[in-house]
Design goal:
The protein is built from 17 helices and no strands. The chain is mainly α. The chain has a single domain, classed as Growth Hormone, Chain: A (Up-down Bundle), CATH 1.20.1250.20. Helix 9 runs parallel beside helix 14 and helix 10 runs parallel beside helix 12.
């Protein structure tokens, strides 16, 4: 255990690292709050899980479509110049959505506000990972430390995904659904602003005007990676709705957050161990294994009968998440041009976002039509599809060219 924490202490000792890592963690807290928070808010005002899932889906889909465009602008003009106004717009969109839902405005206004909020947030995680890449460029231990830094970010993601659902569920059920959205807006507003004000660790803008975003997807491996992430996102998005619906059907709505927290806790524990190991396997192979393990882990959801069983299944399945995401981000470093790293990382996040949107909408409709028990077929089907995809297309999940960035995420692959 001492060795595990020593590896993380080494990366956090870099100048400015603790500051941007902490600010990024706070700014990402809404990632785990807004999905379930929007479901709780909209369902409480409309009485429909289908509508609630659709609003959460529109928010996630808009974010997924717009985030690569925001990240392309960040690569060209710099993080602070782009993200400070974007964060302000995002917070304003959340407040508008809350007011429209609370005061029974026409339903289209809630969807419009979801579009505004989703289109403006970008990918905070990609911004922080780009800062790590910049901070470690040229370091004598760059390859080792960058692997650990990316692993640290996945651990932080899981801390966020453990705490966020618990917090938003507590606020929504003990106080009012509005408090969950308000807290999310404060977290991204404060954390995002603090991150952007740390200019010394901000990667310099490239100043380059790239062509269409599809250029990042020119490598077949990136297409496969993003499609697999869409399927993974369907699992995540459907679980946000199904945890609420399954708990509600059993008259324990206040425990929905615990189920989602268990999903993230398994991932957190796996991420802590994974980040301390320098792996011999290439990133593509590790990514495939992670996807297959996640798919296998969610299959038992078809047979759960109560909340403890559901929590146990998702806790075990969660152990595949962090290793899969860490290796996926490492694979991006091997497949895209370094000047488009933020955009490349964001495409995988967008893939997850598209899946989250689809998963929330499809599972919400499935719950209204057939109940939460049968709706578990949605995440299970998505997991199986992801596993089949990465196994059939495994030859493309390899570096398109030797690069220093590839070595930076798989240092043990080098001779000696």
């Amino acid at each position: 255990m001492t060795v595990v924490f020593r590896t993380y202490r080494d990366v956090l000792s870099l100048p400015g690292a603790r500051g941007f890592a902490a600010a990024g963690a706070l700014a990402r807290l809404p990632l785990s709050m807004l999905g379930i928070g929007l479901v709780l808010l909209v369902e409480s005002t409309t009485g429909s899980y289908a509508t609630a899932g659709a609003v959460a889906g529109v928010f996630g889909l808009t974010s997924a479509v717009a985030s690569p465009l925001v990240s392309r602008a960040v690569d060209r003009f710099g993080q602070a110049r782009v993200m400070l106004p974007a964060i302000a717009l995002h917070v304003g969109g959340l407040i508008l959505l809350l007011l429209c839902a609370q005061f029974d405005a026409p339903r289209w206004t809630v969807f419009a506000a979801a579009v505004i909020a989703g289109a403006s947030i970008g990918s905070i995680g990609s911004l922080v990972r780009a800062r790590w890449s910049f901070a470690l460029a040229g370091h004598e231990r760059e390859s080792t430390l960058l692997h650990t830094a990316y692993s640290l970010e996945s651990v932080i993601d899981e801390v966020v995904f453990v705490s966020g659902p618990l917090l938003v569920t507590f606020l929504a059920t003990r106080l009012a659904p509005a408090y969950g959205i308000i807290t999310a807006a404060l977290a991204v507003g404060i954390g995002g602003t603090l991150l952007m004000l740390q200019r010394s660790t901000e990667p310099p803008p490239s100043g380059l005007q790239h062509g269409p975003g599809a250029g990042v997807l020119r490598a077949p491996g990136m297409v496969v990676l993003c499609l697999a992430m869409v399927c993974v996102g369907v699992i995540f998005g459907s679980m946000e709705v199904l945890a609420v619906a399954f708990a509600d059907e059993r008259h324990h709505l206040d425990r929905a957050g615990w189920v989602l927290a268990g999903f993230a806790l398994g991932s957190l524990l796996a991420g802590l161990a994974y980040g301390s190991i320098q792996w011999q396997w290439p990133a593509g192979r590790r990514f495939r294994l992670g996807v297959v393990l996640l798919a296998s882990g969610v299959v038992p959801l078809l047979f759960v009968q109560n909340l403890p069983q559901m929590a146990g299944v998702v806790f075990i399945a969660g152990f595949a998440i962090s290793p899969m995401l860490i290796s996926g981000n490492a694979l991006v470093q091997e497949l895209v041009d370094p000047t488009r790293l933020t955009e490349g990382l964001t495409w995988t996040v967008s893939g997850i976002g598209v899946g989250v949107s689809a998963g929330a909408a499809i599972s919400g409709a499935a719950v209204d039509a057939a109940g939460a028990q049968r709706a578990f077929a949605v995440p299970v089907s998505a997991g199986v599809l992801a596993a089949v995809l990465v196994l059939l297309c495994s030859r493309w999940l390899r570096p398109v060219r030797p690069s220093h960035s590839a070595q930076a995420t798989d240092p043990a692959d080098r001779p000696g």
